[in-house]
Protein: AAA+ ATPase domain-containing protein
Amino acid sequence: MWIVNILFLLFLVPCLLFLVRFILYKTALIFVLRKWVNWIDDRVHVHQYLKVAELNENGQDNQFYKRVSLYVNSLPSVEDSNYTNLFSGKKSNDIILLLDDNQVIQDEFLGARVSWINKVERFGGVCNRSFLLRIKKKDKRRTLRPYLQHIHTVSDDIEQRRRELKLFINNGSSENPVNGRWRSVPFTHPSTFETIAMDADLKNKVKSDLENFVKSQNYYQKMGRAWKRNYLLYGPSGTGKSSFIGAMANFLNYDVYDVDLSRVANDTDLKLLLLQTTSRSLIVIEDLDRLVNKNLTTITLSGLLNFMDGIVNSCSGDEKIMVFTMNSKEQVDPAMLRPGRIDVHIHFPFCDFNSFKSLANNYLGLKEHKLFPQVEEIFHSGATMSPAAIGELMIANRSSPSRALKSVITALQSNGNEGKSAGKGKRLSDSASSPAVACGGDRWRKLEGLCSGCEGGEEIVRIVEVEKL
Structure:
């Protein structure tokens, strides 16, 4: 009989515990219970208060107050405070939670429980704001310094994610602008790695390379190297190099500095421009091969090499990525392409049939169509076009997918016939750098470049070769 009683008790106790827990979590009793436990714990231990004022002793903004505000309002416990303010963010569907005046929230770090008070005091129309950190004295020596460093790190990440990206363009040295050598506009390029059509494995390799770079500060310092990485994007015009740069900037949340070498006076001027760039940025020089081969810049080869990996480069800020674009890397000095100056080479070719299918899916919503076999046959015959040219035809005829495909077929056949009539059997990609193609000049190339992407548009990129990744 006693065995039955023991078994009954063993069954009854877990059931009662489950029932109590269920009732607590289904009601507000669990919050009341936690509050009582914390109240008792607070009365047992001695606490110390640390004040972070909005203004410093000189009446200037306290930058650490801003960091604490970002950190505190990012804590999940903000939702549990008695009063929380809701505001709309920059995007229409964003909601931002901000702690109300004189509210208290909890945080935990390294096993220690701390609390923050959003203190607001008003005296005769003057409002004094501060954050009060309450921490147990027994935990202070062990956790305070790491906790403050943790606040710095988290607030930096939040600020980086929230800030508005900018595209910087250099002024000429003779313009002598009041606000320095760079002027900026909001960077609104729509391209992302999700909207760019490329091989999934190659896309993941590029993203992984960028992510590893961002996390490698200590590694670069240990190796005694500047925390930077250089990319070369090469291929004919219209193959998506500028859109790829936009995707990199949006992925990393980096500002973009678009260097116009034609407005740089000399090698020293180029160094000064580099020194005025900020950390966490992309520094871009487009059409570098054309500028060098046609002597369209006063910068010497030595000046360019020092810009890419010289001493000034290592002293101009950390966490920078340089991106250079070329139509072809065959005509440039090999010294510009050696490892250390260029870390990653990415080739952007003209369209093949697989790229065409990605374009048809993105622009027209077509995964299959009865005209696809005909398009594939034309591609196999040697005809090709740039992704930008095919994309424009699809946009112009997007109301009728069949008409759009027929227009692409007609254009491909025309290009193929032109190549055959030349008597050389040459593909369009072979003549990408010929005078006939390049006759658009600087004006047209600038319209195709990174600046135009900030106003909209979309290009499809297919990377067929990633070297040294």
Remarks:
- Residues 423-447, 455-469 have pLDDT under 50 and may be disordered.
- The two ends are 74 Å apart (CA to CA).
- The chain has 18 helices and 14 strands.
